[in-house]
Design goal:
The protein is of the alpha+beta class and about 400 residues long. The chain has 2 domains: about 160 residues, no CATH class; about 150 residues, no CATH class. The chain is built from 11 helices and 12 strands. The protein has an 8-stranded mixed beta sheet. A two-stranded antiparallel sheet has the order 2-8. The chain starts with 10 loop residues before the first strand and ends with a helix.
């Protein structure tokens, strides 16, 4: 790419896509979307087209795309669109095209979302733009949001660097060997890429996929480079998008599980430290414990269903190469680690549910025993009264 050895300076053409995925705090019923208020982008596959994309309908991830116009900042024009996913996620995509840029200039562009930018003469944080657009879009579709829960406020942010042309032309191996440090600098927005250690550069480019000598996809934690593969770039982007959305939802469920587990501990602590007949006679405490048990069971079923879909996600891909890319992306994003963490908390949830139900059953049995004793005493008293009156 120029700079590492004496050669013709490298120029790159393509686009940078800043992706922001937000959890809306519920599922989204697409049929309820007020499409009259949205500038929906209609896409149709040409007849006879080979469909490589995963079957999003089965994975409940087929989105509705919305045109959000464009914005100008730092003497650049960016197009903006949104995607509404039924799983309860809104994605905001800010795309900046570049032409014949030097690698160092591309690194500057990739790092735009890490600081202040100037929009219409006003300085602001880059992250404020997608946050504002998300809020406006969420407000428009609020009637379509169902099964609400506390939303996960932090977005999942990812950057795609899509190269459509390079001069001199870059081969797949050039990114991994000849220009490894510059590639790592682009992926990590590191302006001083020359100071990167060999180990750090190797870590940045180690997870990649290449179908031919002319195309490559390199997936890092914060960003990915897609070079070549122009005809099916959108399919590759969607697989990375899929993994990132899964990461967001796993983090959302992890936080929800933490909150419900903490609340369950509070209810159980009160029940176990109270008087032996407390739940039976103090109806508020008893109702709280019963409600906790019901919520734990409902949440566990919901999370188990979602996690089951995550584990079977490769069944939803229509092309083996996309399945390989999903594995690469999920390894980089540590999807399996998050699945393991959620599994652990699901087991903890099951234990708490068992404890809550055991406590409820004990006090139900105690209450029934007391009522039976009360009825027996009442019958005996009535018989005594009848005998006395008969005398």
């Amino acid at each position: 790419m120029g700079g590492e050895t004496a050669m013709k300076p490298q120029s790159l053409t393509g686009r940078v896509v800043f992706q922001y995925f937000y959890d809306v705090g519920g599922d989204i019923m697409l049929e309820r979307l007020p499409k009259g208020k949205l500038n929906v982008i209609e896409r149709q596959l040409p007849r006879g087209a080979r469909v490589l994309a995963p079957k999003y309908e089965e994975a409940e991830l087929q989105p509705v795309e919305v045109d959000l116009g464009f914005i100008n900042f730092n003497r650049r024009k960016a197009t903006v669109k949104g995607k509404i996913f039924p799983i309860g996620v809104i994605g905001i995509y800010i795309t900046v095209e570049f032409r014949d840029e030097k690698p160092d200039a591309l690194i500057e562009l990739v790092g735009l979302n890490e600081g202040l930018i100037k929009v219409e003469g006003k300085e602001m944080e880059f992250d404020e733009i997608p946050l504002k657009l998300f809020g406006e879009l969420k407000n428009k579709i609020k009637s379509a949001i169902v099964y609400p829960y506390p939303a996960f406020e932090r977005p999942e942010i990812y950057t795609l660097i899509i190269l459509t042309r390079s001069d001199p032309e870059l081969r797949a191996t050039d990114f991994l060997k000849k220009f490894k440090k510059q590639t790592a600098g682009i992926l990590r927005g590191e302006r001083d890429w020359r100071s990167l250690s060999d180990k750090e550069a190797e870590d940045a480019v180690k997870l990649y996929l290449s179908y031919s000598e002319d195309d490559i996809v390199i997936v890092d934690w914060y960003s990915a480079i897609i070079s070549g593969a122009v005809e099916y770039t959108d399919k590759l982007v969607r697989m990375i998008e899929l993994a990132r959305i899964q990461l967001l939802e796993l983090k959302t469920y992890d936080r929800l599980l933490d909150e419900r587990i903490e609340r369950a501990y509070g209810s159980l602590r009160t029940a176990f430290t109270g008087p032996s007949m407390g739940v039976a006679w103090r109806s508020r405490q008893y109702r709280e414990l019963s409600r906790t048990a019901s919520e734990l069971a409902e949440l566990r079923i919901e999370v188990m269903d979602y996690v089951g879909d995550l584990r079977n996600i490769l069944k939803f891909t229509g092309e083996w190469y996309l399945g390989k890319l999903y594995r690469v992306a999920s390894e980089r994003f540590r999807i399996s680690d998050w699945l393991g963490l959620v599994d652990k908390k699901l087991n903890q949830l099951q234990e708490l549910y068992a404890m809550a139900m055991e406590r409820v059953d004990v006090h139900r049995a105690t209450s029934l025993e007391f009522l039976m004793m009360f009825l027996i005493v009442a019958i005996v008293v009535l018989e005594i009264i009848m005998v006395v009156k008969g005398l």
